[in-house]
Write a structure and sequence with these properties.
502 residues, five-stranded mixed β-sheet, Serine Threonine Protein Phosphatase 5, Tetratricopeptide repeat
């Protein structure tokens, strides 16, 4: 979903509330909010469809009487034939995908506003959880017309507007306090958004946090008692994900600690497999504890619980943040110091005394498969740029083996690693596989250039020229890539100095 996508009129930017709160603050401390409290007709339609098909418990509708009555009346007017078609669709999907409300809520974030309700992405670019529901939009459009959801949405919209207005000031204050603690109040993040959808039809026990590139979302019931905590948690991801990613390579010495975390039964699998995810979540939990200003006993209990659940870096970050609070730089510049302050050997010795809990976790901020893929790819690319070939290969291979064997960025990364190692044939095979799925002009262009060079070194000038020409035909406007392609057209690669090379 892009920032320019049409929104319902219930949408309220938090900018006014923030400006009121900041009225007495210095101009340098003021910041425009990228955060929106919103209501989504796409999400509303999806949850109505789930309810009509009996996929949510009747008692889960914890909404105002006006919303409950309007929804039940609209669904009651559906013809038995249309209802049977909808139920049949969900029965079929149950055999093919998780019959999980959360999966459908996540998918709703990738739909265009009604009546279109099409995916905003091409099918071959859908995240893994949405791919399993790729036939959902057609069934949803049929339901939208059969249930008269357009009229129903207009009828219930005032209840959503009231919920947004009621929560706006408190949410704005939480965002302000969070940015102030991180010393990011004078910084903007153009092109990035964070949308909080308040949804009366959502089961109150369910929250859904997702991120797609630079777009972060939280779907939550307006009366959740921990609404502000959930808003803050996803906002901390929004602010800190780019910070930890930037310094991913500086945490390479922490890898032995990841091995320790893998023994924690309560720790969700993505955190066991990805040190960057574990470090980011631990930092966020530590910041949350610092902001809550708890007593010493409460802090000790919370740190123990976090550690016993597998978030073994939370304690380090919590106490290291004491030094941050005494310093002046923003967290964006102080984060490398937080990394430097951790003594891996001392932590390994201390963690030998920790007994991980076997009890099931009550709340888990588990990233989606798509989010984990993006983070692994970004981490792999950062490690590749830093010259850590072994760690970069681990990330790319993990994407291919665990999530998607055709992921082009992972194949391209492994091709570059093979090229650097002089493994020409392996590099060629990876480049050819990447070429089948790649869509990004940068990857396509350089893949053609590298394949052209390989074919030149193999003496197949005809194929080499085809790839150099294909790279230029992309018109990708990547100057260095186009220069390399033109040089390849002028003379065979590796023969300009009389010595074959790659």
């Amino acid at each position: 979903m892009t920032a320019s996508s049409p929104r319902p009129r219930a949408r309220l930017l938090l900018l006014p509330a923030l400006l009121v709160a900041l009225a007495a603050a210095p101009v340098s401390a003021q910041v425009a909010s990228e955060v929106t409290l919103d209501a989504s007709p796409q999400l509303f339609t999806v949850l109505c469809a789930l309810r009509a098909a009996g996929r949510t418990a009747p008692e889960a509708l914890a909404a105002p009487e006006a919303v409950r009555a309007a929804v039940d009346a609209a669904l009651a007017r559906m013809s038995p034939e249309r209802r049977a078609e909808l139920e049949a669709f969900f029965e079929q999907r149950q055999a093919l995908a998780r019959d999980d409300v959360s999966a459908y809520v996540s998918t709703s974030l990738l739909l265009r506003p009604p009546p279109s309700l099409e995916f905003i992405l091409p099918r071959d670019q859908l995240p893994a959880d949405a791919w399993e529901l790729r036939e959902f939009p057609a069934a949803l459009r049929t339901f939208y017309g059969a249930a008269g959801v357009d009229r129903l949405w207009r009828q219930v919209l005032p209840a959503y507007e009231a919920a947004i207005a009621d929560r706006q000031a408190d949410v704005a204050q939480v965002l302000l306090e969070t940015r102030a603690y991180l010393r990011m109040t004078g910084q903007s993040t153009p092109g990035r958004i964070y949308v909080v959808y308040l949804e009366w039809l959502l089961p109150p026990a369910l929250t859904n946090a997702r991120s797609y590139g630079d777009e972060y979302y939280l779907v939550i019931h307006p009366q959740r008692p921990d609404l502000l905590d959930a808003v803050r948690h996803q906002y901390l991801h929004y602010l800190l994900d780019p910070v930890t990613l930037k310094y991913a390579s500086t945490m390479s010495s922490w890898i032995p600690l990841q091995t320790v975390a893998q023994h924690a039964r309560r720790l969700p699998a993505p955190f066991k497999e990805d040190l960057l995810l574990l470090a980011t979540e631990s930092l966020i939990q530590a910041v949350e504890l610092r902001l809550k200003r708890l007593s010493t006993a409460e802090v000790s209990a919370r740190l123990d619980a976090s550690e016993q659940s597998g978030y073994i870096l939370t304690r380090h970050f919590y106490y290291a943040l004491e030094l941050y609070e005494e310093a002046e730089p923003s967290i964006r510049f102080f984060f490398p110091e937080l990394v430097r302050l951790l003594d891996v050997d001392q932590e390994l010795a201390r963690l030998e005394r920790v007994r991980f809990s076997d009890l099931p976790a009550s709340v888990s901020h588990t990233p989606s498969p798509d989010q984990t893929i993006r983070r692994l790819l970004s981490e792999g690319e950062a490690l590749l740029a830093a010259g850590n070939a072994a760690a970069a290969r681990d990330r790319f291979e993990r994407v291919l083996q665990t999530f998607d064997p055709t992921e082009p960025r992972a194949l391209y990364g492994l091709a570059l690693l093979a090229s650097q190692a002089g493994e020409r044939e392996q590099a060629k095979q990876y480049f050819l596989r990447a070429l089948e799925r790649a869509r990004e002009p940068h990857i396509l262009g350089w893949t053609h250039v590298y394949l052209g060079r390989i074919y030149d070194l193999e003496g197949d000038r005809r194929r080499a020229l085809e790839h150099y020409q294909a790279a230029l035909a992309l018109n990708a406007r990547v100057e260095k890539m186009e220069q390399a392609a033109r040089r390849g057209l002028e003379q065979p690669f590796g023969q300009d100095d009389g010595r074959p090379r790659f």
